[in-house]
Design goal:
Dna Ligase, domain 1, Rossmann fold, globular, D-amino Acid Aminotransferase, Chain A, domain 1, 12 helices, 4 domains, 28% helix, alpha+beta, 4-stranded parallel beta sheet
């Protein structure tokens, strides 16, 4: 990694150096920036991957910030981008110390904890599901009758991507879901995170209705919606695996305005100031807001980070000041350096992504039909991220996908059909894994 003082330096914080980190590195280098990676990889070996990465432990955000400030004394840090939820707390503290634009520490910390964010949003007058928080050591049978009633949703406080999220329609399902999430939180993979929030399970009222994802940026306190994604597959449980995202949204204009207005108010209440934002919201079609304009909108999640995985490839932008046809990564890097993004517009074409679901637990061996699927009209790319020999785990315990399918076209429905048509042509070989004895 270059330390050339004639270049501006971008620090990218990521828990891995996977495909999302690589996309940001490529975008930064395309923009002529020097890149420094801050990751929580091996802390024993000196520069194990020989890429000059700054080794950090994201569970200690204060210490991470101090390390970044110390690092900046020899290598100037001009902007910071954080990928995923865990690095955002360190990024906020480092940016505060370095005087760089970012979301405030308190706002980021609230977004990382589903309980704290629910409390702040509810206190600010936003619609959120009824909720309660419980230690994972609690007796679920004692809790089942004291919550918001059935159906309800149980979820960990700090995991993302629908991991550990389970719907329960009665007491027996509640108990089974609680114990299943407790086992997940007790696993070495989660315990190694050393986060206080991993000790709790949240119980929420189930909210029916269409769900959307919103990719946005906050530019000096002002919300800029970059794309509203429809989720055409029903997310009704018992698990909530996301598969297809399509934009622009097919919701009526008044519903889209309600989504944007709700999100803008949530940004104000949480105190988010400058940086990326990814949100999940539900619209209740049976209830109209008091002013009679559009459905009621419920806030499910707000994260102070960009969309995960490779999903950002479904978005392209243009701007009179920033140029034509640039990526979400480039947009967020511009934002991190303090450039305005309020004049940014998403491309006119419809676009979408399918996060290819894992159909069953096992060991991934191979895939057939990629070439045929790629020939589906509208499909731009198919990326299989699973590796031969990789152990696959389905939701709610799993945290990955088999890969991603991308499509563009004249209409959202055409894009959705292209994604589903391509998926039908893929044939994955997954063999049972041997039990551990």
């Amino acid at each position: 990694m270059s330390a050339n003082t004639t270049q501006r330096h971008l620090l990218i914080l990521s828990t891995t150096t996977g495909y999302q980190a690589r996309a940001f590195v490529e975008a930064a280098r395309k923009m002529g920036l020097a890149v420094v990676l801050g990751t929580d990889r091996c802390h024993v070996l000196e520069d194990p991957w020989r890429d000059g990465a700054l080794p950090l432990r994201f569970e200690d955000a204060e210490q991470c910030a101090e390390q970044m400030v110390d690092f900046s004394r020899n290598t100037p840090i001009d902007a910071v981008v954080a990928l995923g939820d865990r690095p955002t707390a360190a990024a906020a503290r480092a940016c505060q110390a370095l005087g760089l634009p970012y979301h405030p520490v308190e706002a980021v910390d609230a977004c990382r904890d589903k309980y704290r964010s629910r409390e702040r949003l509810r206190a600010g007058g936003l619609r959120v599901p009824a909720f309660s928080r419980h230690l994972y050591t609690a007796d679920p049978r004692e809790l089942a009758g004291s919550g918001p009633g059935f159906p309800c949703v149980l979820k960990p406080l700090s995991l993302s991507g629908s991991r550990g999220v389970i719907r329960a329609d009665n007491t027996e399902q509640f108990v089974a879901a609680f114990e299943r999430i407790r086992d997940l939180l007790s696993s070495p993979e989660v315990q190694v995170l050393r986060e206080q929030a991993t000790r709790f399970i949240q119980v929420e009222a189930y909210i029916a209705g269409a769900e959307v994802a919103v990719e946005a940026a906050v530019d000096r306190g002002q919300l800029k919606v970059l794309g509203i994604f429809d989720k055409p597959d029903p997310l009704e449980g018992p698990y909530f695996e996301e598969t297809v995202y399509v934009t622009p949204s097919r919701l009526p204009s008044e519903a889209q305005r309600a989504v944007t207005d709700t999100l803008a108010e949530a940004v104000r209440v949480l105190g988010l100031a400058h940086g990326p934002l990814h949100a999940e919201l539900r619209l209740d079609p049976q209830n109209v807001a008091r002013d009679g304009h559009g459905p009621r909108v419920w806030v499910l999640e707000i994260a102070a980070r960009p969309i995960g995985g490779l999903c950002s490839r479904a978005l392209r932008f243009s701007s009179p000041t920033l140029g034509e046809g640039f990526s979400l990564e480039e947009l967020l890097i511009h934002l991190a350096f303090g450039k305005g993004v309020r004049d940014v517009c998403r491309e006119t074409a419809a676009s979408g992504v399918m996060m290819v679901p894992i159909p069953r637990d096992g060991i991934y061996e191979s895939v057939e039909g990629v070439e045929e699927a790629s020939s589906q009209p509208g499909v731009e790319d198919i990326v299989i991220t699973a590796k031969p020999g990789q152990r696959l785990v389905t939701l709610p315990e799993g945290s990955s996908y088999l890969g991603f399918i991308f499509a563009r076209g004249a209409s959202p429905q055409w894009v959705e059909d292209a994604l589903r048509g391509a998926h039908q042509k893929l044939c994955f070989t997954i063999v049972p894994s041997l039990p551990v004895v």
